[in-house]
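Table S4 entry, SDR family oxidoreductase.
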Amino acid sequence: MEIAGKVAIVTGAGAGIGAALAHRLVAGDARVVVADLDVGNAEKVAAELGGDAVAVGGDVADEAVIAELIAVAEREFGPVEMYFANAGIGGGPGLDSTEAQWAATIDVNVMAHVRAAKLLVPGWVERGSGYFVATASAAGLLTQIGSAPYSVTKHAAVGFAEWLSVTYGDKGVRVSCLCPMGVDTQLLTGGLIPDNPEAGELAVKAVRTAGAVLTPEEVADTVVAAMAEEHFLILPHPEVLQMYRNKSGDYDRWISGMRRYQSMLGG
């Protein structure tokens, strides 16, 4: 998959991985709709990118907003050929997470992907090509100490991306799933659970001690390189693959190890 000349939508693109992806795509001669809940941040990124980018603000878990993103892309640049479902939130802590926290996390981390695919995939199948990149997390392959909603929804995001690839991969729809560990973004520096600093601190400590914290730009470079090879699983932290193998090879041993790790972190 070559990105040059393609039209892309990137959600959560006002900062972090999304902003880095938008910059990397435009540097590779793609044209991008920069979407973010914070329209000011989206406009800032789009202004940095010049005429090959346009900003749209809104909640990208809302199907009407996704439809607007697609309409803006088609009007400004042409048919959407790449969709980066990158927006995500941390959610709540554990069993004390509220119904509202669960609902919001499911909406943003999972259903936003489903709704975008519903609007885009039929057209991609008809045209014979399209690329859907889902940002999940290493938490979607392993788990997230300190946050049940984050862990569960990231697992679901991986599961939906798998299903999408199996179902439509022979019909021209390419799918990749991005699963990094620590990345220097607001989600990490601001805490995965802003409403519960204690649980958030545990979650962030678990991420920071598991491996290197990468820059968003490093992650964006990894994504584009993986898309060129059409890899499904994108792992900016290669060690996640071995962790995943350890988990699947002996689930009981892995869970015992994660309990010890949580205890070591003070959880």
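The chain has one domain: 7-265.
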